[in-house]
Each structure stands twice: as structure tokens, then as C-alpha cells.
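Weekend entry, working from home. Most of the wet-lab plans are on hold until the incubator is repaired, so I used the time to fold the two sequences that have been sitting in the queue since the last round of cloning. Logging both here for the record. First:
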Amino acid sequence: MTNSVKRTTISSVNWDRQLKRRLFITDALVVILTVIAARLLRFGLDEPLESDQPVYDGLSALLAIAWLVA
């Protein structure tokens, strides 16, 4: 009986870790794709580099990192 309890506990811990990892990866992909889409909508592909564009890119990256850390 003790062995089955230990196996269940170990497998539930592995399941929990796998779920957390999958959720983080999914969340990261959604955040990255959203930041890229927002940048493309804001600046487009054909416009030359604007003076505020690097600031916007930096703030977008900072917000994405903050979202993933929180």
C-alpha cells in the first residue's frame, strides 16, 4: 500500500511540473506573438525606422518579460 501511495505522489508531482511547463510555454508564445503583432500593426513593414521605434520595441520587450515573470 505504501508503494502505491508513493507512486501516485511522484506521478502527480511530475504531472504538475509538466502542466506548469506547458502553460508557461503556451503563455510565452502568446505574449511573443502579441508583441510582434502589435509592433507590425503600429509600425508596419514598409516604414523607415522612426525615432521612437527602438523605445517602443524596448518597452514592449520589458512588458512581455514582466508579464511572464508575474
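Second, folded right after the first finished:
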Amino acid sequence: MAVHTVADRRRRHLAPACVTAVREDIASRGHTPGWNCSVHNRAGRLLAWTAGFRLVREYVHFAGCWRAWPTWARTRGGWGLARSPSCTTRASPGTA
């Protein structure tokens, strides 16, 4: 899910309302909603928290086309790939 609020509509709590509604709909269908974003995306992390998601873990996200890298690069643990810290969250029990 991606949320973008146009500039003149910001600060009206539209994004949290949208994310909360979608999270509740996903949970009502028997699925576990999830959220991930960069650890540097403070607004995204705050939005997730406000909508009822809680941090599960942080991880390093490798960006790039894996098949485009030569075999020698792939065998060295992905040397040369851009790394970006990311996190994964899950809806807290009882927040559906």
C-alpha cells in the first residue's frame, strides 16, 4: 500500500484514516496486514504506528537487479549492491 496526500489536503488525518480502514478490511478477511518502509522514513513509521502496526524487525534491503550482476559479484554476498535499512511491521493483536 502506498499513501500520498496532496499538499493542500495534508494535516487533516486523511492518511491514518485510509490506512486504518484498509488494515481493518484486510484483517476482517482473515489476513494479517503488513507494512514496510525505510527506517529513515519517519513519517511512514509514524503513520504505521498510528494505524495500529507495531515493529517486528529491521533488516537491510538490497536494491538492484540481482540477475544483472556478474556471477563473481553474487558469490561475494552481493558486493556492489546498494543497501538500504528497512523495517517490517505487523498489526498488533486486537487492533483489527
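Plan for Monday: verify the second prediction. Residues 34-96 form one domain.
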